[in-house]
Amino acid sequence: MAKKKDSFYRLAKDEGYRSRAAYKLLQINNRFNVIEKNDTIVDLGAAPGGWLQVARKISNNKVVGIDLQRIKSIEGVETVKGDMTSDRTVRKILKTIEDEGVDVVISDAAPNLSGNWNLDHARSIDLVESALEFAKQVLKPSGNFVVKVFQGDMFNDFLEKVKNNFAYVKAHEPKASRSQSAEIYVIGMDFLNTPVKKNEEYDVEITSIGSGGDGAVTINGFVIFVKDVDIGDRVKIKIEDVKPSFAFANVVEYL
């Protein structure tokens, strides 16, 4: 009876969405603008298709759904029956999108629940880490990522992994989530397809001074700004923050 009294459940029925979860993605997109009208989108764990319907409504470009179950057809949406952790599935997706690349990877998938919270949380983390690895393989530079995860002891570690790969990261609970639910959505924007990652360390020689007065060095053509150094200094640096076109680092040791 509780489900029938849920306003988003009734609204989904009235507006033709396959699940009340459609409103979570609509609310996320209204706030963060993760999907735009010309984006190519891949939805992981897409059955029954509520998020695919929303993605198709927003974007005029290619929308692809992946699930272990067959997804009932949706006009303008391509579906792949497969496991998102499989290399074969990744190859299928890359073939489906051809040379376009993926602008947005989304996932509202949840593990099979056992009733044991610690186990269910661990399964959720395993699932979202697989979604993140998939996104890293297919996203265009500056692409976006939205994934549902259950809160718990391992959540912050996962959030840090997302922060290492996206310029902007936010944990968000849309209003359409049930109040008693432990789910939360992690939004990653501006995929950092860069040769350096946060917390990595490098031995470098400072080759120039940037316009802001910081030292500058390049690694594989990628510019890193370093504080409190002069041209010619040899230092060990630690990457502190990564942006799509450059990074910031601090000196760990003068060599």
Automatic annotation (TrEMBL):
It holds the Pfam family TRAM. S-adenosyl-L-methionine binds at residues 49, 51, 67, 83, 108. It is an enzyme of class 2 (transferase). The active site is at residue 148. Keywords: Cytoplasm, Methyltransferase, rRNA processing, S-adenosyl-L-methionine, Transferase. It is found in: Cytoplasm. Gene3D superfamilies: Nucleic acid-binding proteins, Vaccinia Virus protein VP39. GO terms for cellular component: cytoplasm. Residues 195-253 form the TRAM domain. GO terms for molecular function: rRNA (uridine-2'-O-)-methyltransferase activity. It comes from the Archaea. Coiled coil: none annotated. It catalyses: uridine(2552) in 23S rRNA + S-adenosyl-L-methionine = 2'-O-methyluridine(2552) in 23S rRNA + S-adenosyl-L-homocysteine + H(+). Its EC number is 2.1.1.166. Specifically methylates the uridine in position 2552 of 23S rRNA at the 2'-O position of the ribose in the fully assembled 50S ribosomal subunit. Belongs to the class I-like SAM-binding methyltransferase superfamily. RNA methyltransferase RlmE family. This is Ribosomal RNA large subunit methyltransferase E.
